[in-house]
Structure formats: structure tokens, C-alpha cells
Amino acid sequence: xxxxxxxxxxxxxxxxxxxxxxxxxxxxxxxxxxxxxxxxxxxxxxxxxxxxxxxxxxxxxxxxxxxxxxxxxxxxxxxxxxxxxxxxxxxxxxxxxxxxxxxxxxxxxxxxxxxxxxxxxxxxxxxxxxxxxxxxxxxxxxxxxxxxxxxxxxxxxxxxxxxxxxxxxxxxxxxxxxxxxxxxxxxxxxxxxxxxxxxxxxxxxxxxxxxxxxxxxxxxx
Amino acid sequence: xxxxxxxxxxxxxxxxxxxxxxxxxxxxxxxxxxxxxxxxxxxxxxxxxxxxxxxxxxxxxxxxxxxxxxxxxxxxxxxxxxxxxxxxxxxxxxxxxxxxxxxxxxxxxxxxxxxxxxxxxxxxxxxxxxxxxxxxxxxxxxxxxxxxxxxxxxxxxxxxxxxxxxxxxxxxxxxxxxxxxxxxxxxxxxxxxx
Lengths: 221, 194
Prior knowledge:
The structure holds two protein chains of two kinds. Chain A is mainly alpha-helical. Chain A is built from ten helices and no strands. Chain A is extended, with a radius of gyration of 24 Å. By secondary structure, chain B is an all-alpha fold. Chain B is built from eight helices and no strands. Chain B has helices at residues 3-15, 19-41, 44-60, 69-93, 117-124, 128-139, 144-150, 155-179. In chain B, helix 1 (3-15) packs across helix 2, helix 1 crosses helix 4 (69-93) and helix 2 (19-41) packs across helix 3 (44-60). Chain B is globular, with a radius of gyration of 18 Å. At the A-B interface, helix 1, helix 2, helix 5, helix 7 and helix 10 of A face helix 1, helix 2, helix 3, helix 6 and helix 8 of B.
């Protein structure tokens, strides 16, 4: 978890005063509109052949990857041993933290995009939780995963608290300074899963994350 | 409702220089951008001007924008950060003599974000970069990926720097609280090697 206690975090984040007033907004928008009017409109872009490029790249990668996989059980002196040695740093590079980062990013993207929290999110939570398991207790990726799981958790509370459309509408029109997590009616089941996995991330290994944070505090003094 | 799906939807409109997409984007992120800018230039009006400049810059390079809503938002934060750094450089070259201070304008050097005096003092003792990291992560709630993108640094380097910044702030906070905020004298930030 974070180096800070919740008190410090709320002292930092609570009293935000900057809200764009209507006249400032109007001034900005007028300037933006003027700038846009001077510039040429961008024609509706064709969907770039990104997927095709990726597929081609993947096809090109198949050969070396095949060799790399085959070389996994090679011993010194084998034909494939040099391949294995060549691949070793790459494997190390895509080690547990890179893998964890990618899984946590996937989960974040999913939570960002879907207000409907689906089985995909549950699976992503599971994959991310598995991926961070090998990381040291104080690794920031764990903290990030906790934050995302907290978000899913908060969604549940918001869903329980606010089924009042008027209130929702009012908050929607305000300039958004804070990050509002997506709200979903189906958040309840996922949160249970999220909670279970959060527990797993913090308790499967010893010492726990909390203990590490305490350790950091002691070191700081 | 989260701003993320909406941000994602706006990316295409922004790329096509659609006026309403820019207006929606402004409604969604201008407040956060101004808060960030204000934490750097410590003056609300300058901060708002820098936000406007960032949007104009975005209008000019709209078709080059790639990625999702978070990428777009990080782009704007990065533009604001550059704008603020330029402003700070300008100020250091030509020390500002406040002869014509607007009444609602805060004095240069003070934060305008409603932090309590201890937090403000402790933050003032950090380096600009450390303060950026703290504000982006803890005040504005950006994710690690976004913070790294705003600071134009790798994820792992950003994590390490953020942890150092957090420790530095905690240390400063301890120091400020132990001697009382009124007797505050800024200490060198110490740990920021970047």
C-alpha cells in the first residue's frame, strides 16, 4: 500500500478548490473554437490497418518463438542451446513485474471502460492477482492493483447508496476533478470476487503488505 | 458515471477537430488540469491560461493523437506541465515584481488549493518533480500508467520516484509538525536525484 496513511492522503486530496467558472470556460471554448475554425478539418480517418500489421508481425514472430519454445529444454551443446541463451534475457525482461503490469493494465482498462462489470472483470482480477503474487510485498504494482480493486469496491457502495437519478445528474454536470469510478448494477458479485482476491494479494505471503508499510515508516524515522 | 468511457468516446471527435468534442473534453478535465497547473505556478489565472494554451495546442496537433481516453488526458497534463515549466523558467529569468496585483490573485509562492498549512509547507519543501508526482497521484488520482506518461518516464522509474517523493513528503510533514507550521523554514528536498 501507499507510504501514506489515509489521513495524509485525505489532507492532500480533500480541499481541492479549482473549479472552472462559467466565464473562464466560455472564454476558453471561444478561443478553442476560433483555433479550430482556422485549422482544416480532419477527414474521417479510415480505420488504420493496425490489426493487420499486428497479425503480420505475429506471423513473423512465430518462427523464432517456436525455436525459443523448443529450446526451453535444451542443454549446453545441444543445437538449440544458443537459442535458449539468446532468449534468456528477453524472458527475464518480461519477468514477473512486466507480466503483472500488463495484467493490472488490462484490468484497469476493463474497469475504465465497462460500467457493466462482467465475468471479464472477474477473470481479469483473478489474472492480475495471480500475476502480482510473485512480486515483493511492497511492489507498487500491488498498490495499483489494490487501488483498482478499491475502485470496484467503491462502485458497489455507490450502487447501493445512490439509486437516485436526480443526484446522479447533479454530480454529472459538475466539472470533474476527482476520479469517479464507473457505477454498475452488477458490481456486487464482482466486488465479492475483488475482495476475495484483494485478501489473497495481501495475505497469501508473509509478511503482509501492511507490515511492510509499517516497516517503511520505521525506516523513515 | 465515470469519465473514462466518455473520454474514450471523445478521442475520435478530438482527432477530427470536432468542436463539441473539445467542449466536452474541457468540461471533463479542465478543472483537474487547472488544479495541477496551480500546484506548479501557484496562481489561478496563470494556471487557467496555461490550461487554455494546452487545449489550443491539442487543437493544432489533434490528428496526431493516438490511444484511448487516458492517453488523451495524459497528453493534456503533459502539455500543461510543459506550459508551467516554461512559465517557471520565465519567472526565474525575470523575477516578477508584483506591481499590479489583481485583488483576487493570490501572492506568488502560495498554494491556492486549500491545503492546510502543514501540508502546504511540506509540499513547498519538495522539488517540483516530486510535487508533480504527489499531486498527480494523490490529489488528482491518476493511475501509475498515466503519471508515467505525464512525466515522460518509464513506469518503474516513476514508481520509484513517486515512492521517494512520498517518503520525502512524510519526512517534511514530520519536521513541519514537530516544529510547528509557524516556524517553518523550507529544507532541501534531499532525495530527488532527477
